[in-house]
# Entry
Amino acid sequence: MPARGDHDARRRDVSAAVWRVLADRGFGGLTLRAVAAEMGASTGLLTHYFPNKKALVSYALDVADERTSGRAVRTTHEPGLAALRAALLDVLPLTPEAAVMNRVWVGSWDGSLADPELREREMRRYRGWRARLRVHVAAAVERGELPATSGADDVDDVTAAAAAFAHGLVVHALFDPDRYPPERQVRMLDAWLAALAP
Amino acid sequence: MPARGDHDARRRDVSAAVWRVLADRGFGGLTLRAVAAEMGASTGLLTHYFPNKKALVSYALDVADERTSGRAVRTTHEPGLAALRAALLDVLPLTPEAAVMNRVWVGSWDGSLADPELREREMRRYRGWRARLRVHVAAAVERGELPATSGADDVDDVTAAAAAFAHGLVVHALFDPDRYPPERQVRMLDAWLAALAP
# Structure
């Protein structure tokens, strides 16, 4: 059994190789063989870690989660609309790194929709994200930056609309970066936020 | 060589089998073996049609295109905002059939992002869709239903935002149908359109 340090180093190597495969080829290209080739290791070694395809996919989602939660995010001291804007900007593919991150997540959807367990995992992830965004929407209403509406449902709907808009923009920008340069993505987000204000 | 009628019947069988595999398992589950099993045919027979995985994926995209363009769509005699609304409703997963259609398209993105040719194909498809939506946005401005703006750029941005919102809503509704029942999707779309109006 390898020492702990070896184990951690190996895990980092595997994670980095998985990420490179996902960034280049997506989940459709994620195979033990591809990861082994990235590491210069044998497929046999990886079989030890990943007894089946689903184990490899679950691990890849863990890697994506870690990268996503470990990424640099915008900090703002303003609550409400400014915080909502910052949180949505954090999601958009405004940098090459953010584009890779998004490409991986968008690529994960096919497999997640096909597997009840992975689908539930993704559902919970997005519920968690919307719950974090909702805090900003509620604060914006509180501060009078967004119209006071008929109740909690409307705050939920505005939050869900913000999340949908951001994710759809991610998809279109990934397919058509020439038509969706970063400045246009930001302009579109700002126009939408402006349309919400009273 | 089979007679023309046989050929067409066989093509319909293959298309139906490909569609069932996509609906159940997504592009990640699309293999010659899976399609053959759906047809009760031999994998060898299908190798004749699809020399490699990419040929099968391209064919699957053709099938999805055919199904999408052949589906029943809402007709409206009102141009402008009403036509935009109808076109966006046509995209949302408001029925089981529309949910399957969307599940297939969302599932196609992983493979399309990984292949330059497929990526370009998808890019053009979405450009075409946005061009069709743009006609409605421009008509809505003309009719005074949307504010007259600073020019063509704004019409493009409003169109792109509507397309992004609809596609993001598709993704969230696919993962979380309990939280996104059809009536909520429609309510969110109507709120979106209402926020655009002067």
In short: The domain at 4-68 of chain A is CATH 1.10.10.60 (Arc Repressor Mutant, subunit A). Chain A touches chain B through 47 residues (CB under 8 Å).
